[in-house]
Structure formats: structure tokens, C-alpha cells
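Project outcomes to date are best conveyed with an example. Our students and postdoctoral researchers have been running inverse folding experiments weekly, and each run begins with a structure described purely in C-alpha cells. The record below, which covers 420 residues, was selected by the lab manager from last quarter's runs and is presented without edits.
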């Protein structure tokens, strides 16, 4: 152990477990790539103001969880706590919305930072794969994103997740509801901070996880009863499209994502095997966000799925991912000449796309075979002075233990046909 440890709330991805994270990212990205989403990458930090406006001044993310700092040059920056604001900022900056092919569909994958109280499934550095469809108001687009996330989780073998769905209304009906909710909240016994929140962003109070607050909210007015006809029709269409796709969901009239810009469709993916950190992903429509960060009106919808919690969910369900073997062939040279010969063979195998590795450092046969075993290789190729003198190498099948002599010049083709 060195003098240093990973900072509080962070952890390292280390082989072999790290392979799971790659596989999860890949599985979430695959359906997006297959559905017209282009890859976007943005900086790990942005002007703090982007998040203040784009995530919301009154949110926990901005008030408590953001890593904000001032640079030597005096710029006020923040490590990105989420992806949507950055992706929209980048799309606007590159004028993607003016190229005449709306919606602009983008996907991303990366690290996010929030100063939270660390616990299982809640870290200060975590990773998400996300998707945003910018510049179209179409229930099929909302449905598409929900269906693709469902497909991603299923392709990983996850079964015990639930999709919960709600509509948050729009700028016609939300304000009416907001006022009704505020009136209701004023009659409750709330602490000062919560009262302040009720003033600035009353919907967020519905999201309060504290039991004493939740108890008081039992009779809170529901947005469902305030939706205007346009929002009702839109939501009904989303529900029908995902139902027709065979995706099961639950209506949850209390689900809020308490940011002011969220509109209409709102959803969360939850996994019941994760204790209180049960949300594996979430998203929704954010028709107002572009204008809030100084852009034109661009109705949009998106989601972000948490990679760390998805891995925990797989573990909770006991799902073993079918990870490709990292090494198919392991070469064990037992003499100087054999080192040169086998090293060449390993290079040839790699060029053919066969995963091959080599016993480095001068090890005896025993130590080298231990490495071969650990590598998980299907075949080991062993050669010593006597083998080469006879023009052969030893090919060992690591499953059966059988060992046969194969001509030095034939070994690559032999392995290629065996592994092909
Ligand atoms: P929570 O209610 O659990 O705090 P959130 O609403 O803050 O979640 P989002 O901002 O919607 O989460 O982020 C999308 C996903 O990213 C979450 O569903 C979760 O899987 C993951 N996520 C968010 N914060 C963290 C974190 N601190 N550590 C690990 N994963 C996280
Ligand atoms: Mg959170």
C-alpha cells in the first residue's frame, strides 16, 4: 500500500471487475447507436453558471453537491454533476439545432461528480451513460428513449427493475398546480429550509425522502388532476406507445424530478435490490431548459443511467455477464530462442485478432504455467530447446489438459482454426 488512498467517496475500477463496467457502458450504448444517436463528449468541467441555471439554483445538486472552484485566472468553474446541461450547451454552441435535422440525438458516457454523503451506490465520483434528443416535441421520442433504456437493461440480463412514469405538465397547467401545491404546503408543519423550498420550487418538496415529511404529503394535490388537455393527450400517447412495445411501467402520480425546466414526461428506473439507492436511472422531457441557458425554444427529452448502480443491480440479481475471455492463447517460452520464436507467434496471433499473451520475465515452467492458468487462456503454447530442435511447440488444451506437439510453422494456423 502506498501513502495514498482513493479520495473519500471514490473507488477504483480494477480488473477483473472493471470489465463489468465496460460491458455495462457498452450494453447501454448499443441500442442508442442503433437508433440514430451520435456520440458526444464534453469537458469534465463547465462554467458554474451553466449548472446554476441549467440544473436549478434551488436543487440539492447546485446548493450542496457541486464541486465548484475558482481557477488561477479567476474563472468560476464546476466539475460536472450531470450531463444534460453540458450536452445542450455543446449542441447549441455547435449550432447542431440549425442544421435542419431535428431532433438532434446524442449519447454520452463519462464521469460525474457530486459532493454527497458516501454510501453504497452513492459516490462522489460516479459514471453515467446518457442520451438526449433535442429539438422535437413528439411522444414517440419520449417513448423511444424509455424503450431503449428498457432494452439496454434487459440485454444485460436485468429483470427486477421497474419503470415508473409520470407527467409534470407544461407551462399552461403546471403553474396552476404549483399554486395549489404551495397552498397545501403552507398548511403543513415544515422546517424553515423546507418552507423556503416550498416557495422556490414546491414540486421538490414532494421528492423529500424524510418519513415525517412524506407522512404529511399523503393528501397533497396531484399534478395528474391538473394536467391540461394537451398534456393529458401527450402523456396518453407516450403510455400507449411504450405499452405497444411490450414495455411494462407503473404510473406514479407522485414522481417528480423537481427541476423547473422539466415538463411532461418524467420517468425513473428503480431496482428493488439496492436498498435506498434504488434509482438506477432517470430522465424526462425538459422543454424549457434551452431557453434557461440562453438558447432558442428547443423541446427535448433525455435520460441518464447510472453505471455504478447498474453494476450493483446486476450483482444483486446474481447476473453473471458473459464477458469475452481476455486471453485465448498464452505463450510460455523455456529458452532464449523460444522467447524470440514464441514472441513472434504471439504478435502474429494478435494481428489475426486472437487475444494472446506472453510469459514475461524469466520464470520457470511452474511460475509461467501459473500465469497461463490465471490468464484464463483456452490454450497454452509451450516451447523449450528440445521442442524447437524438433521443429515443434507444445500445444496444451487448458480445459482437457491434453498436450500435443504442433509444427512451429503450423501453430498459428492451427490455433486460428481451433479458435475460429
Ligand atoms: P438519487 O435520488 O439517488 O440521488 P438523482 O435523482 O440525484 O438520484 P440523477 O441526477 O437522475 O440521480 O442521475 C441519474 C442516475 O445517476 C441515478 O439514477 C443514479 O443511478 C446515478 N447517480 C446519481 N447520483 C449518483 C451518485 N452520487 N453515485 C452513484 N450514482 C449516482
Ligand atoms: Mg441525488
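After processing, the design step wrote out the following sequence:
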Amino acid at each position: 500500500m502506498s501513502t495514498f488512498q482513493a479520495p473519500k467517496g471514490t473507488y477504483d475500477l480494477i480488473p477483473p471487475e472493471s470489465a463489468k463496467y465496460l460491458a455495462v457502458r457498452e450494453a447501454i450504448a448499443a441500442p442508442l447507436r442503433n437508433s440514430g444517436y451520435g456520440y458526444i463528449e464534453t469537458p469534465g468541467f463547465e462554467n458554474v453558471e451553466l449548472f446554476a441555471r441549467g440544473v436549478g439554483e434551488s436543487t440539492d445538486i447546485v446548493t450542496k453537491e457541486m464541486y465548484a472552484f475558482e481557477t488561477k485566472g479567476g474563472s468560476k468553474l464546476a466539475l460536472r454533476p450531470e450531463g444534460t446541461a453540458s450536452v445542450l450547451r455543446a449542441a447549441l454552441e455547435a449550432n447542431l439545432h440549425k442544421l435542419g435535422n431535428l431532433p438532434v440525438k446524442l449519447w454520452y458516457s463519462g464521469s460525474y461528480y457530486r459532493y454527497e454523503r458516501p454510501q453504497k451506490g452513492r459516490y462522489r465520483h460516479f459514471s453515467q451513460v446518457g442520451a438526449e434528443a433535442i429539438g422535437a416535441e413528439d411522444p414517440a421520442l419520449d417513448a423511444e428513449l424509455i424503450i431503449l433504456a428498457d432494452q439496454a437493461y434487459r440485454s444485460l440480463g436485468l429483470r427486477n427493475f421497474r419503470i415508473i412514469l409520470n407527467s409534470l405538465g407544461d407551462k399552461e397547467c403546471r403553474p396552476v398546480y404549483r399554486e395549489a401545491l404551495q397552498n397545501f404546503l403552507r398548511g403543513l408543519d415544515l422546517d424553515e429550509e423546507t418552507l423556503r423550498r416550498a416557495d422556490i420550487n414546491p414540486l421538490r418538496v414532494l421528492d423529500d425522502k424524510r418519513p415525517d415529511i412524506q407522512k404529511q404529503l399523503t393528501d397533497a394535490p396531484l399534478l395528474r388532476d391538473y394536467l391540461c388537455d394537451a398534456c393529458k393527450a401527450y402523456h396518453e400517447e407516450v403510455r400507449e406507445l411504450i405499452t405497444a412495445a411490450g414495455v411494462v411501467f407503473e404510473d406514479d402520480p407522485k414522481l417528480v424530478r423537481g427541476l423547473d425546466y422539466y415538463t411532461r414526461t418524467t420517468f425513473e428506473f428503480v431496482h428493488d435490490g439496492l436498498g435506498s439507492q434504488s434509482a438506477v436511472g432517470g430522465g424526462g422531457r425538459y422543454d424549457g431548459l434551452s431557453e434557461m441557458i440562453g438558447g432558442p425554444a428547443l423541446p427535448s427529452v433525455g435520460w441518464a443511467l447510472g453505471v455504478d448502480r447498474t453494476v450493483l443491480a446486476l450483482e444483486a440479481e446474481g447476473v453473471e455477464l458473459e464477458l469475452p475471455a481476455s486471453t485465448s492463447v498464452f505463450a510460455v517460452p523455456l529458452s532464449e530462442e523460444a522467447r524470440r520464436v514464441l514472441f513472434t507467434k504471439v504478435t502474429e496471433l494478435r494481428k489475426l485478432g486472437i487475444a494472446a499473451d506472453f510469459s514475461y520475465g524469466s520464470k520457470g515452467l511452474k511460475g509461467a504455467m501459473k500465469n497461463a492458468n490465471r490468464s484464463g487462456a483456452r490454450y497454452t503454447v509451450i516451447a523449450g530447446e528440445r521442442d524447437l530442435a524438433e521443429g515443434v511447440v507444445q500445444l496444451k488444451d487448458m480445459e482437457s489438459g491434453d498436450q500435443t506437439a504442433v509444427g512451429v510453422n503450423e501453430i498459428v494456423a492451427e490455433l486460428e482454426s481451433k479458435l475460429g
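The chain has two domains: 17-173+227-316, 329-419. The mean pLDDT is 95. The training component of this project remains on track.
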